[in-house]
Design goal:
binds alpha-D-glucopyranose, 48% helix, two-stranded antiparallel sheet, mainly alpha, 3-stranded antiparallel beta sheet
């Protein structure tokens, strides 16, 4: 049973997308997040294309236009001033012509480019746009391996929890505890005036988030220095899987466009990363875990990030089936999947942001992975959960136990996923 009939669900999704549309980019939600976010925008394009393909391409073009000269695509672009968000452009102080943050986010762009291109109705437009944007994704990926894997291990580290997209996951607790808090400038949070504080990160975490920002700012945001200077260096299986998938997707596009050099380099990066990925598998926990690069140990935290390697088809068929079984087990413990943290773990908090709640975008990426690994039934079950959850509104995230919608309301990427899922279902019928 889904919440609405598909026609109504699609119409509501289209309304949310249009309410948050600022012309050439879309805000995640009014109030709480009034700028352009990196992976939000890319995933939003997946929904927008069902309404207007041209508009979907524009979303990505706008993001790519703010790529840094070194290749990084920042996690926030502050197009217009708004004091409803902290930390704003003055705190980041990155010196970019249009202010941006100084860190990045999960690189879903390559994956989205390929999907938009291959499934486009307007093939001429799609080829023109994809050809123009592939270089941005390629240089971003090269930046990752140069700046975030300086030892050439094959896997990249995130230097700030916000880069993961899973801001306050239990995955970061241990590494974050080692980040000092001395010298953090006084600040006033804005998130807790938009959303109930019990659904947001704690102050102790926020202080450390800001310490890292100040540290990097003190180094002039020079990415040649940041990695080694950061006390927080975590290799996230979810993040790396997304990068591998996007590299393979731009390789496929490059091959289709006769860009053989670009394609071969992307394949080589992905192959090296695949070979290194085994390091993140935990036999004991039956899933992938984060690696703390500063201590070279796996982090004892079972989260949905450990299922995302499916998105890149990583692991043996046996491991993929083990992950599907684990997802089914978690779904069995809650009413709606997929919880962002293992519901059997005492640290599970069903309402606190990335420490328990279910997120439709993650469901989408994991389900895409299950399907590509030949686990179609498991994928369908996750999609069904997503469509059942919208009975709680088009929320930022959901309590997986009760289904209650939480965080920001009328949320763009949730709406985009609904548009995508409804169209997918129509195609399959
Ligand atoms: C939060 C989320 C992040 C998202 C952003 C905007 O910071 O954790 O993944 O990109 O909000 O929606």
């Amino acid at each position: 049973m889904t919440a609405f009939d598909d026609h109504t669900a699609f119409a509501r999704a289209a309304t949310v997308l249009s309410e948050n549309d600022r012309g050439s980019y879309t805000v995640p939600t009014k109030g709480l997040y009034p700028f352009q976010w990196n992976w939000d925008s890319c995933l939003t394009a997946l929904g927008q294309r069902h309404i207007d393909e041209g508009r979907a391409w524009t979303e990505i073009e706008t993001l790519a236009a703010h790529q840094w000269p070194d290749g990084m695509i920042p996690h926030i672009v502050f197009h217009v001033y708004d004091d409803g968000y902290f930390p704003g452009p003055d705190v980041w102080n990155t010196g970019r012509p249009t202010p941006t943050s100084g860190i990045t986010q999960p690189p879903v762009m390559g994956f989205v480019l390929r999907r938009l291109y291959e499934e486009a109705k307007d093939k001429v437009l799609a080829e023109e746009k994809a050809r123009a944007l592939i270089g941005a994704a390629d240089s971003w990926h090269r930046w990752f391996y140069a700046a975030r894997d300086p030892q050439g291990t094959g896997l990249v580290a995130i230097l700030h929890p916000w880069e993961s997209g899973r801001d306050n996951s239990v995955d970061w607790d241990e590494a974050l505890a080692r980040v000092p808090t001395d010298g953090v400038e006084p600040y006033q949070r804005r998130d807790t005036s938009h959303v109930d504080p019990s659904q947001r990160p704690h102050k102790a975490e926020y202080d450390r988030y800001l310490w890292l920002v100040q540290r990097f700012r003190g180094l002039g945001w020079d990415n040649a220095k940041l990695h080694d200077a950061s006390p927080f260096q975590v290799v996230d299986p979810g993040f790396n899987a997304i990068l591998i998938r996007s590299d393979e997707d731009i390789a496929a596009l490059g091959e289709a466009f006769g860009m053989t050099g670009l394609a071969a380099a992307a394949r080589a990066r992905a192959a090296k990363a695949r070979a290194a990925f085994d390091r993140l598998w935990s036999e004991e926990h039956g899933q992938y875990l984060c690696l703390d690069r500063t201590t070279d140990t796996l982090i004892e935290s079972r989260t949905v990030g450990g299922f995302l390697p499916l998105f890149a088809g990583l692991g043996t068929p046996e491991r993929q089936r083990a992950l599907a079984a684990r997802i089914a087990e978690w779904r069995g413990r809650t009413r709606f999947g997929i919880a962002s943290h293992d519901p059997a773990d005492p640290r599970f908090e069903p309402k606190r942001y990335w420490r328990g709640p279910a997120w439709l975008i993650v469901n989408y990426l994991v389900a895409d992975g299950l399907a590509r690994c030949g686990l179609a039934e498991a994928a369908d079950a996750v999609h069904e959960d997503s469509l059942r959850l919208i009975a709680g509104g088009f929320a930022e995230y959901y309590d997986p136990v009760t289904g209650e919608g939480l965080g920001g309301g009328n949320f763009t990427w949730t709406a985009a996923m609904v548009a995508e899922l409804v169209r997918k279902r129509a195609k399959a019928a």
